[in-house]
Amino acid sequence: MLARKSIIPEEYVLARIAAENLRKPRIRDRPRKARFIAKNGACNLAHKNIREQGRFLQDIFTTLVDLKWRHTLVIFTMSFLCSWLLFAMMWWLVAFAHGDMDPSTEYTTNSTKWAPCVTCVRSFTSAFLFSIEVQVTIGFGGRMMTEECPLAITVLILQNIVGLIINAVMLGCIFMKTAQAHRRAETLIFSRQAVIAVRNGKLCFMFRVGDLRKSMIISASVRIQVVRKTTTPEGEVIPIHQVDIPVDNPIESNNIFLVAPLIICHVIDKRSPLYDISAADLALQDLELIVILEGVVETTGITTQARTSYIAEEILWGHRFVPIVTEEEGVYAVDYSKFGNTVKVAAPRCSARELDEKPSILIQTLQKSELSHQNSLRKRNSMRRNNSIRRSNSMRRTNPSLMVPKVQFITPEGTQNASET
Length: 421
Prior knowledge:
The protein is of the alpha+beta class. The chain has helices spanning 10-23, 54-58, 60-66, 69-98, 124-135, 150-178, 181-184, 279-282, 352-357, 360-398, and strands at 188-190, 194-199, 202-211, 217-231, 237-245, 255-256, 262-267, 287-297, 303-311, 315-317, 319-321, 325-328, 331-334, 342-344, 406-410, 416-420.
């Protein structure tokens, strides 16, 4: 069956589609810059073309700890299997050289003084079982050493030493992987976004940090670094230029008491790399602010480090974090559902340098915000008043009992006048 032809000619439709595409130009999104530090604290860095691979074997313990769990478990299993097989081969060779594998010697053991090196080792399977019994110190009583072979005694001593070394290295590696410092950092959380607002008359960069566990981080300190691509006056391009920025802390040391979520503040002053950046320039900046929290775990005494980063798209200008700590029945309660919530506040859109040069900008901004707040309150009150009046009028119309009765007044002339009160 043939398809119906459209009423509108096909040439007209194509022309209209082309005109619409010309009227609405496509806006291509700016490609997202690769982060130096991910939100979960992992370093977004790939090491390539490393020629000196042997350096990793010089620090074999750290290499084993840094491996993935599946690789560690494979190495753990293969190290024991290989050692058991190696010494099983040695025990089999010792028994073969001594003649324990000869079936004729089994019938002469009771009539002569001949004795095997290891009793009941007649095959490679029995030698493998004896190797396992020696290394893991399991004695079933069927296979045992004798005094006939000094070489067998030497193999026994060597296997015990090698087994202890393998146990110490592999068990220590697994323990270190389970007790790594970054495991404790999983319960140290940062706000998803950072804010820039006015605090104490200064523009400040702020973010929130909290600890989900009751065991505290001792001597916790916070550092902030700005990573950006810069070019020196000589023309040298530095792709990862790190600049430390100070953290506003009323205590002389940089330590914080992380018993409850805290708002870490950085005052944008002349020393800050954000001093010349305004709200309009922030979206165009190619920078990344890295936050590093270090401290000692109270329960284990191991130093831990938690990291995160904020790019320009994750910094909200003119916002402030809502309070989440309240006092309930003598106990301070923390509502983590509002951990990253922010609210809009009055803040000048200019840079900190312009704010220092013209302090009147801050006063004008605050006055405008106060006037807008008062106007919004007036509108809200007027709307409430109008709604209450409309509600009362509607109730009078619907309920006849609320109607005002008519009262008749008699004048001296004898006429009656009706009026409402």
